[in-house]
Amino acid sequence: MYCDPRFSRVHEVFEEQFADGGELGAAFAVYLDGELVVDLWAGVADRRTGRAWEADTPAFAYSCTKALTAAVALGVIDDVTSPVTRFWPEFATAGTTVEHLLTHQAGLPVVEDPVPVEEFADLPAIADRLARQRPLWEPGTAHGYHALTYGFLVGEVVRRITGTSIGDLVAAQIAGPHELDLWVGAPDEVIARAARLTTRAGGPPPEDRAGGPPPAGKASAPRGTAPGDENPAQAAATPADTPAALAALDPGSLMNRSLGNPGMHLLKGGANHPVILRAGWPGAGVVTTARGLAGFYRTLIAGGLLPHDRLREAVRRRVDGPDRVLLMDSAFGLGFSRPSSTFLTPPKAAEAFGHGGLGGSLGLGDPSKGLACAYVMNRLAGNFTGSLRAHRLVSAVYDAL
After folding, report:
1. For residue 224, is pLDDT > 50?
2. Cα gap 311→335, rounded to integer Å
3. Pairing mode, if any, of strands 353-356 and 329-332?
4. C-alpha angle with apex 130: 261 to 253, nearest 5 degrees?
5. So what's the pLDDT on residue 288?
6. CB under 8 Å to 323, separation ≥6 — which residues?
7. Cα separation of 357 and 52, whole Å?
8. Do 185 and 245 meet the contact criterion of CB atoms below 8 Å apart?
9. Alpha-carbon span 103 to 140, nearest angstrom
10. What's the DSSP call for residue 173?
11. CA distance readout (Å), 152 to 46, 83, 149, 211
12. pLDDT for 232-289, tens place per residue?
């Protein structure tokens, strides 16, 4: 492990979160002006076996994937105001643009028909289901978080242009050239050493399940919502009678439906199952180390993936306000989250952008500070006491600048 003395408080916060029982295994990495200044990891990668978290332990980071998908898409799509039908003629809603897909305005946050398990790795087949649906609202008139469908929609547009999946393009354009340990669709060797996700702190259970909406009546939400705490059990703020908290308890809510199909929970172990780790869903499929995810943002803000003017346009707020799915305020650029109730950042991080993932994982870049951060863990948040683990670490980083 390494921590520049300027960031000693970051190391202290990291250790405190283990000492108070908030963590099982986790890693946090920070680049400042291209230099790795924080590289921390600790704890247990698999509590069933006691396997330790190592420097190269990757973790499934759910919707942190969306930022990678956005970067790839913006590298191949020349005009985001183009109608989706320009690239995907079978797409049913002629008025939908690529910008609508990237900003969660398409009105397609749910796959209406149940996706069978045997189709989980057939991304074009899932996209075809969405192409035949009618939007729940007129595209461009509102936004609502497309938790899983974002990736199938944007990924299919990219596939129609390039003939290649998001996962293969991430490998060829991002991970490979920049030597980053991240995969959208992990090989077996990576799966074998990946951290195993759980919602519990200790004591090996007969089975850890991660992914999909919670059973009705058992959902819960954190106090305030940490960056990336985006499953239905986490999207609501206290008190418990807020619209978001009530939606989390309703299995038929748009919030739960958006996360429940395709249903990771249908597989033994949920998101720990190799089918999910291999599938490379472009909305929730990345397996990464903290150093690898932070390295993506380091490269992105340095102009290594998109020209600086293109990145500025990508992170410009396109939508901001009530989210029809999360029932909280959210804000998005072109695939990137901006500071809001669902992407908490310190006051000094007004220029930050990035994306979180279910349970608390986070990737963040701030060009104004030359800063890139990432946090991954295997104990998913999921109760009303909340999880501000990533937020505390990022706040300590900004305090040290």
Report:
1. no
2. 11
3. unpaired
4. 40
5. 98
6. 104, 143, 144, 145, 329, 330, 342
7. 22
8. no
9. 9
10. I
11. 30, 17, 5, 17
12. 333 333 456 788 889 888 999 999 999 999 999 999 999 999 999 999 999 999 999 9
Confirm if 67 and 292 have CB atoms less than 8 A apart: no
Structure tokens at 13: 């916060």
Whole-angstrom CA distances from 21 to 18, 169, 197, 337, 376 are 5, 38, 16, 29, 16
Give 43-111 as a DSSP string.
Answer: EEEETTTTEEP-TT--EE-GGGHHHHHHHHHHHH-S-TTSBGGGT-TT-S-TT-BHHHHHTT-SS--S-
Structure tokens at 114: 């149940």
Which residues are 343's β-sheet partners?
Answer: 340
Q: Domains in the chain, start-ordered, CATH in brackets?
A: 2-400 (3.40.710.10)
Does the pLDDT value for residue 226 go beyond 50?
Answer: no
Residue 29 has pLDDT above 90, yes or no: yes
Q: Which of 344, 381, 340, 331 is nearest to 360 (CA)?
A: 381
CA 288, CA 275: separation in Å to the nearest integer? 17
DSSP 334: S
Looking at residue 360, what DSSP letter applies?
G
pLDDT higher than 50, residue 44: yes
Q: What is the pLDDT of residue 214?
A: 41
- Give 109-146 pLDDT, tens digit per residue: 999 999 999 999 999 999 999 999 999 999 999 999 99
- Spatial neighbors of 338 by CB under 8 A, at least 6 apart, are 315, 317, 320, 331, 332, 352, 353
